[in-house]
Request: fold
Amino acid sequence: MIMRSKILLAALLGLFIGLNSNAQSIYYFKYHYPKVEDTTTYQAFMVRYDDGTGFIRVHYIDDSTHEEELVEMLMKEGYDVNKKGKVDSTKLYFQGYDPIYLRGDSDQDYNPDIFWFQYDKQTDYYTPWGIVSPDKKDGRVDEGEYLEVKLLNQQDLTPGFVSLFFDKKEDFFQNITEVATGRGLSTEEKKTKMYLLIAANTLDPDIGSTCEEDRKQTEKVFGDLAEFLGIEIVKKSIYGQEYNKNNVETAIQSLNPSPKDIVVFYYTGHGFSMNDNHQFPHIALTSKSFESARSNSLNMEDVYARIKSKGARFNLVLSDCCNNSIEGASAIIPVNLARTRSSNLPWDPDNCKALFMSPKPASILMTAASRDELSCGISSGGLFTTSLRSSLVDFFSKFHNNVTWAQLLEEAKNDTIKRADKTAMQGDNGTYTRCKQHPIFKIQVD
Reply:
């Protein structure tokens, strides 16, 4: 590597890497390269988003000039590939690229680091394992040594620490170190109620376990949101033996929100399209194999219209189900999706309030797949539900300013597409193809 060779660069383009994806894991690494002539100690701040992208900033003191240096790199991830071309999914790397200097001598040429993680079967997470740096001049790969590795949480992100990697004028610094004062809901706003209605086909032999995970996680994220805002939540979950069309219709009919309240409807189960003009799916509200799915179904556009007519301030109507012909179902065979531990970051009450308690009444309808597409799921839940939940938590946090539903839903859509592309599905002829899944949504502001 690594006395970082100083080469005059023709030009450097300024680059600010915004927090526009799901901020999931923030790691701190302190390391050096003892096997080469480099006595420098490096400190890295790595942000890994839930879709596998992210960025790295590296801070160090130049041994020759004693100047402070700060380098920023984009980041890509991938699995290890051995000499025979076989993928080893137990080893995951995060590689920096396109380095630029934010502080110090911008004429230097920085050799990007590669951070290696290894899969832990006991925890089902990838954890830090090693670090290397390929030298661009002679092609050798220098092996580094970690001095400290830490998954960062809110209590670690003190102004003094964050200032090593970010200037105080940057949005990231201001958002992550800001202390909330005098914010939150007023006494009148805390009279708002959230109505959460969930329908989940948890007894289905093929997708029941996935639907159960979706149900539990959806109930938790909205329950946590209501608790965080300090408002009452009224929950109704229809699953197990209670799962049928009559119970779902009765629950919708029984909703009685005030004009300042919030209604969330979430469905997870089988869905299908028919020869009609609906772009959103029909949901199959039967758990009995002898019952007709068509005659025991509701279209999500009809569900949306019924809920919207109740007159709540905000309506969020969601479905995670297939949107293809009822005869076209396929088995879903997932690949191992790389997971790193999540950093515990606080939510921002202003962001939560902007999304769910805007003065202008709004309604949203969103489903997991476009017409003629499948909705993919794995043991930990539906890909769309996982992506949406991750985007919600991301936009609740301090990583964003001036949040909007359009931004949040677009992020959830794109993340679902990426997750689906890593999932294989088996057709009737036994062949496997990549799952193609494109969520659709509409937003109405009154």
Notes: The chain is about 20% helix and 35% strand.
